[in-house]
Amino acid sequence: MRMSYNRLWKLLIDKNMKKSDLRKIAGVSSSSLAKLSKGENVTTDVILKICDVLDCNVQDIMEAVKCEPSESNE
Fold first, then answer.
1. Number of CB atoms found within 10 A of residue 24's CB
2. Is 65 helix (H, G, I), strand (E, B) or coil?
3. pTM to 2 decimals?
4. In the chain, what is the straight-line distance between the N-terminal and C-terminal CA atoms, in Å?
5. Residue 52 near residue 24, CB atoms below 8 Å
6. Cα–Cα distances in Å, from 61 out to 7, 34, 53, 69, 70?
7. For residue 72, what pLDDT is reported?
8. Domain coordinates of the chain in residue numbers?
9. How far apart are CA 51 and CA 45, in angstroms?
10. What average pLDDT does this structure show over 20-32?
11. How many C-beta atoms lie closer than 10 Å to residue 69's C-beta?
């Protein structure tokens, strides 16, 4: 399993926000935002800051998805 943040990117579009806007408002680092963009792990602190700023729940911005067979070896 891996985390997908596609819901976050869709929510930003709906709110007419850019990733850089989110970074500034939520107070998260550019490296954390880069990790999110790549679908990599970030701390729960980062996730909670984003949820607080966007006034949403964790499941509104991320979901666990099954890995493709080629991804499970990485």
1. 11
2. strand
3. 0.85
4. 12
5. no
6. 5, 15, 12, 25, 25
7. 52
8. 2-65
9. 10
10. 95
11. 7
Q: For residue 29, what pLDDT is reported?
A: 96
pLDDT score for 69: 74
- Residue 64: DSSP 8-state: E
Tokens for 25? 């408002």
Task: Give me 69's structure tokens.
Answer: 């067979």
In order of 16, 46, 52, 56, 67, the CA distances from 1 in angstroms are: 30, 20, 26, 23, 5
Question: Contact 65/47 with Cβ under 8 angstroms?
Answer: no
CATH of domain 2-65: 1.10.260.40
The two three-digit tokens of residue 74, written as one number: 């990485």
- Amino acid making up residue 32: S
